[in-house]
Amino acid sequence: MPELPVVIVGAGPQGLAAAAHLVERSEDVIVVERGRAPASAVSEWGHVRLFSAWPELTDAAARGLLEPTGWSAPASGYPTGAEWVSDYLSPLARALGDRIRYATTVTGVARQGRDKVVDAGRRSQPFVVHTVDADGLESRILARAVIDASGTWGLPNPAGADGFPAIGETAASDLISYRIPADVSALAGSHTVIVGAGHSATHAVLRLSELARRSPGTRVTWLLRRGSAANVFGGGLGDELPERAALGSRARRVIDDGIVDLVTGFRVAEFRRTDAGLTIVAEDGRAVTDVGRVFALTGFRPDTGMLRELRIDLDPALEAVAGIASEIDPNVHSCGSVAATGARQLAQPEHGLFIVGAKSYGRAPTFLALTGYEQVRSVAAHLAGDHESAARNELSMPDTGVCGGSGDFDDNAGSCCAAPSTLQIGRSPLSVLDPARSLTLETS
Q1: Are residues 321 and 369 in the same domain?
Q2: What three-state secondary structure class fits 261?
Q3: How many domains, in total, are found in the chain?
Q4: Does residue 146 belong to any structural domain of this protein?
Q5: Among 216, 212, 193, which residue's Cα sits nearest to residue 262?
Q6: 414 Rama sector, left if φ>0, alpha if ψ -120 to 50, beta otherwise
Q7: Could you list the residue range(s) of the whole structural domain that residue 207 is in?
């Protein structure tokens, strides 16, 4: 079906880079974007500064498309999400022109005339991409291949530790946010809780710690599900991304200074409303009380609803592309960097379908823009018939300096590659009410 285009779902960093690589290879491409502008998800966290530097945030084919227009790649520095959009992603979208269809939502992808069950002639039929625009007008796009770069931004994980919303979480939704806060000034003098252990949670903790320093009476509590905080602070000097290392170091400092209280092994089971605010109850009965605001930053999960009539292969635990799951599993991944992955690993049972970018990682963390750019470079080469280029790995990933996982989810001893150590949390023990034993627990 060489006369049909490749359809890309999502005009974010990886979707736009995929389009640039296909254009570079003279392939016809259509990008379908739900937002009214490129990289709409990135724009929603535009106030957050990235820990990747500019050289790691632009794609080679995209630079080749932009440079003839007079654009030049920023040589250094760490942009915010908004700067990434304004200085790179928006110019790239303009260069791609009317290949991008904005304010258009993909509602489903299928094989023409065949649902998921039908075997006969499946591979010879084009894809049908079902869409609806902002006015509710439905349409269909025929495609020879589909690249799903729609990301995971629209489906954050709940605060509940078992993967479902905790009891009372939905009812307390007016006091719970699943995004990194931009302006925290309204929280001065109140008690704010952050749930989560990743970089988003760390960003939020640091933003709120600045408020706590300048506004007496402001309390910040950080809840971790794991029994150890060893990996939260990063790899220090062993991290090859300096700003990522600095993020962890700053987080450790606000804990050591007593600005933020850290509670480990706290798995949220329930939210209760009281006259003084929310009470957050853990599965083991501990409770954090008098909470005015909660930021549940526990990661994201992929929405595969649009692919339900296609045959896809996802890891049962991570919901990541099965071909890369073993490389990115945070439960077992050892020290060092995650290997870059290409078309062969990303290929789905449905010939011509590729899931790339953050969505390819499913629920796994640690995704970097560099990884996505290598993914789409390889996929575009494959779709253009350049299988030699598709098979090459042209990227060396920066090391994290820490293990990807912890030896035991319930273990307080530390990570799988660090000696056990005692972590001093703040200047004094944090008191967390344990109604079962009627005493205070020292969090370590």
Answers
A1: yes
A2: strand
A3: 2
A4: yes
A5: 193
A6: left
A7: 173-299+413-442
Token digits of residue 221:
């509590």
| 295 found inside a domain | yes
Structure tokens of 398? 């920066």
Cα(421)–Cα(408) distance, integer angstroms = 15
pLDDT in tens, 345-362: 999 999 999 999 999 999
- Over range 386-415, report the average pLDDT: 64
Burial category of 190 from C-beta neighbours within 10 Å (exposed 0-12, middle 13-18, buried 19 and up): middle
223 close to 194: Cβ distance less than 8 angstroms: yes
Is there a single domain that holds both residue 266 and residue 306? Answer: no
CATH of the domain at 207: 3.50.50.60
CA distances to 271, 272, 434 from 167, rounded to whole Å, are 6, 8, 19
- Report H helices in 104-261: 199-214, 242-256
Give mean pLDDT, residues 409-431.
41
Rounded Cα gap, residues 50 and 17, in angstroms? 18
The residue-averaged pLDDT of 334-347 equals: 73
Q: Which of the two residues, 277 and 406, has the higher pLDDT score?
A: 277
Please tell me the pTM assigned to this model. Answer: 0.88
Residue 359 shares a structural domain with residue 433: no
Phi-psi region of 248 (alpha: psi -120 to 50; beta: other; left: phi over 0): alpha
Four-residue CA torsion sign, 72, 73, 74, 80:
positive
365 Cβ neighbours under 8 A, 6+ residues apart: 198, 199, 299, 330
**Torsion sign across C-alpha atoms 258, 262, 263, 267:** positive
- Work out the widest C-alpha separation in the chain, in whole angstroms: 72
Compute the distance between CA of residue 347 and CA of residue 391 in angstroms, rounded to an integer.
12
What DSSP letter does each residue of 41-94 carry, written as one string?
A: HHHHTTTSBPSS-GGGTS-HHHHHHHGGGT-----S---BHHHHIIIIIHHHHH
Shared domain for 141 and 181, answered yes or no, is no
Q: Pairing relation of β-strands 29-32 and 100-101?
A: parallel
Based on C-alpha coordinates, what's the Rg of the chain? 23
Same domain, 262 and 374: no
- Residue 164 forms part of a structural domain: no
Written as one letter, the residue type at 195 is V
Residue 235 has pLDDT above 70, yes or no: no
Question: What are 361-394's pLDDT values in tens digits?
Answer: 999 987 889 999 999 999 999 999 999 999 998 7
Share of the chain above pLDDT 90, in %: 74
- pLDDT at res. 437: 32
